[in-house]
Amino acid sequence: MSTIPEFEKRLDAELAAVNGRIEELRTKAVKAHEARQARYSEFVRVAADLSEKVGKPRLEALLKRFPEAKSTKLEMKHGRGVKLNFDSDLARVSMDVAVHPVEDADDLVVTYDLMILPMFIEFEKHAELRVPMNAVDSDLVGRWLDDQLIAFAKTYVSIQFTDQYQRRNIAVDPVAGIRFPLSFAAGEVDRGGVKYHFLSKQTKDEFERDPDAYVSAKTPAKK
Question: Hey, where are the domains in the chain?
Answer without folding.
Answer: 47-159, 168-215
